[in-house]
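Need a sequence for this fold. Nothing fancy.
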């Protein structure tokens, strides 16, 4: 199986609406580390891979917003997302995180604590 097909298949599985997949992901720090280590790459990110990453994390945010935001906060993901705004999928993900209803306040608090947003925002 070619590498591109494997990556596409993995993103489909990880973004599936299956509780057991999310339980496994959130119970395994190594899986979360591997997922979010994608953001440690130098800019610009590969557009296709950024799309897969954005799809998986967006699904995580939709299904388990509190758990996902906690993981993102613990891994200091916001500055990494900001570094990769040139990738449209990363921009979309950042907008989703910052605009999602109840989670917006928590996201803004994380940004303030990391000095990404001023206190007035």
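Here you go.
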């Amino acid at each position: 199986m070619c590498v591109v097909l494997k990556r596409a298949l993995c993103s489909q599985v990880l973004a599936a609406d299956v509780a057991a997949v999310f339980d496994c992901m959130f119970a395994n720090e190594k899986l979360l580390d591997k997922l979010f280590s994608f953001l440690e790459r130098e800019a610009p990110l590969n557009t296709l891979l950024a799309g897969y990453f954005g799809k998986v994390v967006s699904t995580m945010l939709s299904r388990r917003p509190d758990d996902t935001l906690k993981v993102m906060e613990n891994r200091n993901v916001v500055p990494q997302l900001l570094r990769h705004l040139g990738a449209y999928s990363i921009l979309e993900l950042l907008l989703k995180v910052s605009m999602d209803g109840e989670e917006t306040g928590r996201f803004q608090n994380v940004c303030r604590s990391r000095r990404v947003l001023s206190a007035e925002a």
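For context: The chain has a mean pLDDT of 86.
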